[in-house]
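Query structure, 241 tokens:
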């Protein structure tokens, strides 16, 4: 068994990553592939927590632009993350991975309430913990929830999965072929250059708590495996250039 660099990680999954080649909804084959990657690192003895977004089901920004109250739109988005969390939990358990879902919104019929000490205990027992419902507050993104939960559980790294983008670029590589990829970048550089790593609140939280971030392409073969081993993959965001 290879020696891992990070023994406790938090994986941030965007809702769009779960839809695969579809524009909306959940792709079973994509979800199964993600579950197999998670099982791979759990079998290596790594504690894994996951925060899921809900953009494949609900887009709060669009709902707000169409006239919906922002707070209402954000709460609807939190419910969308719970649907994704339950789908991921089901696939993980079919792969033989013991899993618990905790929600920032209290929906006790389908998920535990978020309790930090209980979440840590689950991780210590080798269970994957999926955090749904964002932070439970409007005006906060799933990125902020990921940074916050990672800090709360003592994760050693935040793994930010991207959909078909293998790191952080100077511009959108899908639109600008001259965009330059960064192998390493500091928090301040990412903030000053206004690079779309994650929202500013989440990035500031990571910077204040010196939590490294690895931005990588989830579709790259064994990408999570390589990340926990400390192999060069994607872009590392940290306090050192």
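Result returned for the query:
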């Amino acid at each position: 068994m290879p020696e891992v660099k990070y023994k406790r990680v938090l994986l941030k999954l965007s809702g769009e990553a779960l839809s695969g080649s579809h524009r909306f909804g959940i792709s079973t084959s994509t979800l199964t592939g993600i579950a197999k990657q998670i099982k791979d690192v759990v079998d290596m003895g790594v504690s894994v927590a996951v925060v899921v977004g809900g953009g494949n089901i609900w887009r709060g920004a669009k709902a707000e632009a169409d006239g919906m109250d922002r707070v209402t739109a954000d709460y609807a988005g939190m419910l969308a993350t719970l649907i994704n969390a339950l789908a991921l939990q089901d696939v993980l358990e079919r792969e033989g991975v013991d899993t618990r879902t905790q929600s920032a919104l209290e929906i006790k019929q389908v998920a535990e309430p978020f309790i930090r000490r209980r979440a840590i205990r689950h991780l210590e027992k080798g269970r994957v913990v999926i955090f749904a419902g964002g932070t439970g507050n409007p005006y906060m993104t799933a990125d902020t929830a990921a940074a916050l939960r990672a800090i709360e559980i003592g994760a050693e790294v935040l793994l930010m999965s991207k959909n078909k983008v293998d790191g952080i670029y100077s511009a959108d590589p899908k639109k600008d072929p001259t965009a330059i990829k960064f192998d390493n970048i500091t928090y301040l550089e990412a903030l000053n250059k206004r690079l779309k790593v994650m929202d500013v609140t989440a990035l500031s939280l990571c910077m204040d708590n010196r939590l490294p971030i690895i931005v990588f392409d989830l579709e790259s073969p064994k990408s999570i495996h390589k990340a926990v081993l400390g192999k060069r993959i994607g872009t590392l965001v940290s306090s050192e250039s």
